[in-house]
């Protein structure tokens, strides 16, 4: 019988590392690696508790397979995006890639429509 | 014979699809086909509704025609339709108005967009309304209630007042936002009822008379349902979408809006609130009654100074629906009978008034009373006797003159309020009787503003009795789309109205043998049934009252001693 | 109390007669409205034929019901279920309804025949004839209705016809104004009428007069209910019968064509209220307070209107005010009707007033036919009726007869009917306390005294009107006066109330259709007293020689006083000192301020305006502002809120991927914590 705590501890370490990667790194590839770490932390927990509680349907294992599949698809698309980003900009710095955001508050460009337009008589 | 009931819904909705999808109906060359399909669909619907009426006896409380098949098993919703005494008058009214508006738009005024989409929208509204009036399942009711919104929005947005693009957009947006907002609240109320009672079937709900639904839940449900339906009626102060919508809508749209759509709200109150959550409704009814009376006065006073004829008629709708709200609020058989009668009468009379107002607006470019008078070159009395006659009948019926359709509903609503039960409603008898007395006073206000219309348009009096001033001339010219260059004042044009108005009824175009000042044959064909219908129910009130009476007694469980 | 039977096969002809009385004129109205405008003869024939057919039906009904006290209930528009009972909508054929129906049909027929000639230049004759037919049907419906709601239908349709006919010459602003005013003021009274019906309906569960008067029904109602219902019904009657303080519409209603004034605003519609109260007398009998109010209102109207009539300068307006005063007699007769006499005195007054007042109006029309005005006066400041004797002697004689009947000169009809009312008042005053109706004593005295005084004033204003119209002014040669007036330039249309403008040369003489009508109406004016002998008027009439002598003396005194006032006023006329004119307008004996006050109808118009019209207008403007700036502020505010919320939420969309991911992680933590915490 293996104790649960080493697996849980490992999962916590993975989550911390993943979160750091996701939030603190600028490089898109590294951010993706952070995401993978998060997913794998979840997988580890799922497998661990599946084994520990002897679920008859083994839903933990089934879900893990799901996550792996989804993660594979996600990484495929994400790496394609990163590749395209690199081709367009020459770098993969996420802080500089802000074209998809709404313009910042200063140049929001929202036409200040008069109240009357919403209030026909 | 439930096939009649199915036909009633399938014919208008199917024809709407047919008109939209048939390639042969596209373009100017498809107009005759559109007209054929539209008019025959309307006529068949009228025939079917009349055939359904002959399935007597109405004296039994059993539904005369019924369809009940599974629909969405997961929700427990069934496609349950039935036609009883409460639905029957509204179904016939809807069918008749549907036919008349299709005739009006396919043979009368044309639009640059062609009439294909308009006919499809009108038929869709008609079909949706017929479904609403026959629905016996809460979910079916809600779906049908929503179905009419989008086509009606399109009618206002795309085929509305050609002089005022912006007003059209605003009116259409207001219409959709108000009614959709009301629908959200209505849906919450319906779901609450379903959750508390475990059924969506109205027949079952009516026979239970609220048994098994606790008092607080009934109260909440009644508030939500009434709030949602009151937007549609509309009850003061939720009425501000109606005047712009009527002003912007084309004549056909105004007729359907006033004659059919408003009725869906009051019908919903009678069928889905009063018998379903009776205790909750009784608690809210004093508020509903008071708001109805406030509406009568508010709208009546607004009409006294309103200059735009279409807005004026729209406001008078608010006043008339105030009587309906008062009758329903009374919770008495007389009040409900009155509300149902007033529903139908208002649909007929207001349609007639909108027909005249729309016809005048098409001729003279604006519905402003001054512009109309100057444009018509004098009172309608001598210049346009047929249009003037329709206006007179509409106004007189609208002011609730006994012997015409407008009277009985208002009288019975007042009688019902006078008799309202102070115990179950929790409001003292004096309160209800004050409401009744004030409502009668409101009919004087109705006389005042409708006689004002007649004095201006029919007798032909400018406000101060003076000759047209330069600003008036300017107003008329701009309404008629002429260049507002003062050098080009053409007195002949003012004298005779705008010869070049592009939105005239087709049979009044230049070269027609009909005098364009007076009603065209199409307007007579559409107006005459409305004139007759404004008079007959007033003289023979039992036609409607005997039809609705057993169903009303059943809804209120009068014979079981609940009231 | 009368017994009521349903119309069975044996009384079928009465039932059909009763229905035809209402339906035939209605059909005539419909038929007249669809005949093409250019077929004038057909239109006239339809109008006259409708009235004639109704008259025949009414006579048949009278023949069937005259001798008995049985009332027949006749189905008309079918019972209408209200959900808590039914509204029967039946007619009632009995002696009272048959007698009054015959009277209405006679006047209607006279007016239809008369207006064939009188309205001969009218472009809107078709509408005129049709609406008069419709009015006839409505009035006959009121007369014959057994159901109060059926009565209400007739009642309001009469109001509509009155509106349409007053505004018949809608080119004139005064006519348009008077039409709307008449409708709105009467409608104001009808608020009470409708609520009265609702009260009765709610309390007794029936709107049928027959069932209401069945033994036991009224006894079930509380005094409060009966009093409230009676007072509310009286409010409606006050409006329709133009009693104080709602009388302002009737003098203005003289803007309508003169035949209309004769039919609607004298003989029938304004008296209909009295008829309705006579029908409901047993209800009123249970409400002494309501009868007291009615007596006070009637007495005030009676005297005030007679005084106002004295100061008018237009013959039609004199007649209008005298209508108010005479109808007040009728209502006073109901207010004091002792139980054993019933409403017979009031009905008597109704019939005789209809006869002599329609005669008077039609005479006024015939005289105005030549001079195009109904103004009275001797001073040469415009066209007037003065000197009618020289132009139309026969019409002048008939006018004299009518005025004498109005003044109550025996043995004309007005004398007998006024005696009947005063007799009833005398009974109430002297014996009122004996049979339990104690509160009637003071009301009886009030009606008796005011009625006698009003008789004096009535004789005075009738004499004044006669003196201003019939004799030739002394300073103008009789032959030339009419011609001179006619050939004057026509004054502007606004100055001519209700007289059709036409070529004077074409209308040299009164056409036979008009003069024969006048002669026909003179017969009942003279002979209506005979009704007292036969069994025609239901109920009993009490005549006392003392009251009769007193009234006659006062009437003669009134005539003499008016004559004396004329002499006296003649000396006051500037320039009247010349021997040529020793005579003046008798009203000049009154101070100018009083004259203006009386002629202007006691300033009640201004009061109405200040109390009702102005506040309503103010409220209406307030509502318009409020609708846009208060009620509509919420939807607009909602729209603004949504827009601002959109602007604010848009700012969160920064485009910083790490920011999004951080928010995501924080959200995940929150969800996890919530999951743990809620477990």
Biggest beta sheet attributes of chain A: none
Span from first to last CA of chain A? 78 Å
Radius of gyration of chain C: 31 Å
**Which structural category do the helix and sheet elements of chain C fall into?**
mainly alpha
Largest sheet of chain C at a glance?
Answer: 3 strands, mixed
**Global mean pLDDT of chain C:** 80
Residue share in β-strands of chain C: under 5%
Catalogue the unreliable spans of chain C: 475-498, 501-506, 575-582
What is the helical fraction of chain A, as a range of percent? Answer: 55-70%
Helix tally of chain A equals: 3
Structural class of chain A: mainly alpha
The portion of residues forming beta strands of chain A comes to under 5%
Given the structure, what is the number of helices of chain C?
27
- Oligomer status: heterotrimer
Shape label of chain C: globular
Give the beta-strand count of chain A.
Answer: 0
The interface involving the most residues is between: B-C, 62 and 52 residues
* Strand arrangement in the largest pleated sheet of chain C: 1-2-5
Helix content of chain C: 55-70%
What does this structure look like?
Chain A contains three helices and no strands. With 121 residues, chain A is mainly alpha-helical. In chain A, helix 1 packs antiparallel against helix 2. The termini of chain A are far apart. Helices cover 71% and strands 3% of the residues of chain B. In chain B, helix 1 packs antiparallel against helix 4 (116-134), helix 10 (242-248) packs across helix 13 and helix 14 (333-364) packs across helix 15 (369-376). Chain B is globular. Chain C has 679 residues and is mostly helical. Chain C has helices spanning 12-34, 40-65, 95-118, 125-144, 148-166, 173-204, 209-212, 217-220, 223-240, 249-252, 258-267, 269-279, 281-285, 288-310, 315-335, 344-371, 388-391, 393-407, 413-431, 440-469, 478-487, 512-527, 545-572, 592-599, 604-631, 633-650, 657-678, and strands at residues 3-6, 70-75, 80-81, 86-87, 90-93. In chain C, the strands form two sheets. In chain C, strands 1-2-5 form a three-stranded mixed sheet. In chain C, strands 3-4 form a two-stranded antiparallel sheet. The longest helix of chain C has 32 residues, at 173-204. Chain C is globular. Chains in contact: A-B, A-C, B-C. At the B-C interface, helix 7, helix 12, helix 14, helix 18 and helix 20 of B face strand 3, helix 5, helix 6, helix 25 and helix 26 of C.
């Amino acid at each position: 019988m293996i104790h649960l705590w080493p697996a849980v501890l490992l999962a916590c370490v993975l989550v911390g590392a993943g979160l750091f990667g996701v939030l603190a790194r600028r490089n898109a590839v590294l951010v993706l690696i952070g995401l993978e770490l998060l997913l794998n932390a979840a997988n580890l927990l799922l497998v661990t508790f599946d084994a520990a509680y002897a679920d008859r349907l083994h839903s933990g294992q089934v879900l893990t397979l799901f996550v792996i599949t989804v993660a594979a698809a996600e990484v495929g698309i994400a790496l394609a995006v990163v590749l395209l980003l690199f081709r367009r900009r020459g770098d993969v710095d996420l802080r500089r890639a802000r074209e998809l955001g709404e313009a910042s508050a200063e140049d929001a460009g929202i036409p200040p429509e008069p109240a009357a337009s919403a209030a026909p008589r | 014979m439930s096939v009649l009931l199915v036909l009633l819904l399938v014919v208008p909705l199917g024809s709407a699809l047919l008109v939209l999808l048939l390639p042969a109906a596209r373009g100017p060359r498809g107009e005759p086909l559109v007209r054929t399909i539209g008019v025959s669909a309307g006529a068949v619907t009228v025939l079917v509704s009349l055939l359904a009426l002959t399935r007597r006896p109405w004296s039994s409380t059993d539904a005369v025609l019924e369809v009940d098949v599974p629909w969405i098993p997961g929700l427990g919703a069934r496609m349950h339709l039935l036609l009883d005494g409460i639905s029957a008058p509204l179904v016939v009214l809807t069918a008749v108005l549907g036919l008349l508006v299709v005739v009006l738009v396919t043979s009368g005024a044309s639009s640059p967009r062609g009439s294909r989409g308009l006919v499809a929208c009108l038929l869709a509204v008609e079909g949706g309304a017929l479904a609403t009036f026959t629905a016996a399942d809460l979910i079916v009711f809600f779906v049908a209630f929503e179905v009419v919104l989008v086509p009606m929005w399109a009618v206002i947005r795309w085929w509305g007042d050609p002089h005022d693009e912006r007003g059209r957009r605003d009116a259409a947006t207001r219409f959709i936002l108000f009614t959709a907002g009301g629908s959200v609240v209505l849906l919450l109320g319906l779901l609450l009822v379903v959750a508390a009672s475990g059924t969506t079937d109205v027949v079952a709900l009516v026979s239970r008379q609220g048994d098994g639904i606790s008092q607080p839940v009934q109260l909440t449900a009644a508030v939500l349902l009434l709030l949602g339906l009151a937007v549609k009626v509309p009850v003061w102060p939720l009425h501000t979408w109606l005047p712009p919508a009527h002003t912007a809508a084309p004549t056909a749209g105004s007729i359907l809006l006033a004659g059919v759509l408003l009725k869906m709200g009051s019908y919903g109150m009678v069928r889905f609130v009063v018998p379903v959550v009776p205790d909750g409704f009784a608690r809210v009814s004093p508020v509903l009654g008071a708001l109805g009376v406030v509406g009568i006065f508010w709208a009546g006073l607004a009409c006294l100074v309103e200059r735009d004829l279409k807005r004026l008629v729209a406001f008078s709708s608010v006043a008339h629906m105030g009587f309906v709200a008062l009758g329903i609020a009374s919770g008495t058989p007389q009040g409900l009978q009155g509300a149902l009668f007033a529903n139908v009468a208002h649909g007929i009379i207001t349609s007639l008034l909108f027909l005249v107002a729309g016809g005048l607006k098409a001729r003279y470019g604006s519905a402003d009373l001054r512009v109309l008078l100057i444009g018509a070159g004098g009172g309608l009395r001598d210049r346009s006797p047929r249009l003037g006659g329709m206006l007179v009948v509409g106004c007189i019926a609208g002011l609730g003159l006994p012997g015409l359709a407008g009277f009985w509903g208002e009288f019975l609503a007042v009688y019902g309020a006078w008799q309202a039960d102070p115990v179950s409603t929790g409001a003292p008898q004096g309160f209800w009787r004050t409401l009744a007395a004030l409502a009668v006073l409101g009919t004087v206000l109705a006389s005042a503003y409708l006689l004002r219309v007649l004095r201006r348009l029919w007798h032909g009096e400018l406000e101060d009795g003076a000759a047209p001033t330069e600003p008036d001339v300017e107003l008329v010219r701009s309404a008629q789309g002429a260049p507002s260059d003062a050098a080009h004042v053409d007195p002949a044009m003012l004298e005779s109205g705008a010869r070049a108005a592009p939105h005239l009824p087709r049979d009044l175009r230049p070269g027609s043998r009909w005098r364009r000042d007076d009603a065209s044959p199409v307007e007579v064909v559409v107006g005459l049934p409305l004139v007759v219908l404004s008079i007959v129910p007033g003289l023979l009130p039992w036609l409607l009252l005997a039809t609705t009476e057993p169903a009303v007694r059943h809804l209120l469980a009068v014979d079981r001693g609940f009231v | 109390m009368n017994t009521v039977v349903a119309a069975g096969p044996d009384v079928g002809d009465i039932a059909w007669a009763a229905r035809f009385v209402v339906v035939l004129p209605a059909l005539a109205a419909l038929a007249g409205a669809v005949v093409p405008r250019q077929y004038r003869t057909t239109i006239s024939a339809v109008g006259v034929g409708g009235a004639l057919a109704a008259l025949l039906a009414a006579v048949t009904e009278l023949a069937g019901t005259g001798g008995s006290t049985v009332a027949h209930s006749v189905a008309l528009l079918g019972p209408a279920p209200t959900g808590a009972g039914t509204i029967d909508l039946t007619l009632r054929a009995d002696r009272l309804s048959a007698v009054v129906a015959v009277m209405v049909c006679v006047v209607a027929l006279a007016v239809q025949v008369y207006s064939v000639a009188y309205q001969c230049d009218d472009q809107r004759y078709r509408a005129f004839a049709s609406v008069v037919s419709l009015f006839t049907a409505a009035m006959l419906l009121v007369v014959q209705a057994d159901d109060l709601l059926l009565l209400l239908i007739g009642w309001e349709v009469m109001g509509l016809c009155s509106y349409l006919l007053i505004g018949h010459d809608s080119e004139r602003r005064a006519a348009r104004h008077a039409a709307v005013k008449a409708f709105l003021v009467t409608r104001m009274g009808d608020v009470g009428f409708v609520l009265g019906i609702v009260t009765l309906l709610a309390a007794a569960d029936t709107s049928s007069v027959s069932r209401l008067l069945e033994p036991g029904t009224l006894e079930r109602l509380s005094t409060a209910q009966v009093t409230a219902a009676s007072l509310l019904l009286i409010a409606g009657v006050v409006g329709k019968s133009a009693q104080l303080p709602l009388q302002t519409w009737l003098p203005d209603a003289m803007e309508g064509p003169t035949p209309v004034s004769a039919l609607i605003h004298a003989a029938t519609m304004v008296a209909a209220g009295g008829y309705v109260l006579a029908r409901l007398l047993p209800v009123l009998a249970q409400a002494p307070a309501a009868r007291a109010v009615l007596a006070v209102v009637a007495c005030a109207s009676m005297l005030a209107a007679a005084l106002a009539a004295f100061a008018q300068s237009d013959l039609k307006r004199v007649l209008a005010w005298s209508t108010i005063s005479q109808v007040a007699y009728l209502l006073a007769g109901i207010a004091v009707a002792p139980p054993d006499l019933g409403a017979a005195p009031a009905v008597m007054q109704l019939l005789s007033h209809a006869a002599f007042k329609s005669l008077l109006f039609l005479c006024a029309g015939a005289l105005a036919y030549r001079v195009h005005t109904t103004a009275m006066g001797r001073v040469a400041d415009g066209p007037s009726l003065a000197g009618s004797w020289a132009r139309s002697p026969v019409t002048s004689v008939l006018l004299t007869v009518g005025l004498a009947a109005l003044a109550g000169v025996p043995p004309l009809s007005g004398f007998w009917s006024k005696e009947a009312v005063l007799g009833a008042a005398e009974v109430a005053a002297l014996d009122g306390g004996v049979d339990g109706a104690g509160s009637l004593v003071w009301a009886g005295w009030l009606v008796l005294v005011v009625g006698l005084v009003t008789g004096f004033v009535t004789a005075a204003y009738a004499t004044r009107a006669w003196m201003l119209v019939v004799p030739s002014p002394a300073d103008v040669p009789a032959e030339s006066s009419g011609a001179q007036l006619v050939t004057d330039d026509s004054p502007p249309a606004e100055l001519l109330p209700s007289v059709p403008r036409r070529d004077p040369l074409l209308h040299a003489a009164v056409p036979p259709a008009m003069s024969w009508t006048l002669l026909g109406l003179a017969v009942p004016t003279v002979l209506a007293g005979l009704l007292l002998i036969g069994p025609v008027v239901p109920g009993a009439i009490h005549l006392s020689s003392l009251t009769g002598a007193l009234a006659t003396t006062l009437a003669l005194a009134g005539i003499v006083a008016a004559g004396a006032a004329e002499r006296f006023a003649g000396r006051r006329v500037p320039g009247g000192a010349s021997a040529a004119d020793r005579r003046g307008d008798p009203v000049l004996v009154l101070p100018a301020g009083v004259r203006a006050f009386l002629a202007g109808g006691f300033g009640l118009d201004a009061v109405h305006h200040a109390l009702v019209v102005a506040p309503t207008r103010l409220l209406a403007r307030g509502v318009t502002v409020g609708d846009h700036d208060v009620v509509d502020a919420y939807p607009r505010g909602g729209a603004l809120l949504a827009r601002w919320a959109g602007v604010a939420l848009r700012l969160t969309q920064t485009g910083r991927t790490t920011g999004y991911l951080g928010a995501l992680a924080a959200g995940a933590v929150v969800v996890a914590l919530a999951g743990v915490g809620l477990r």
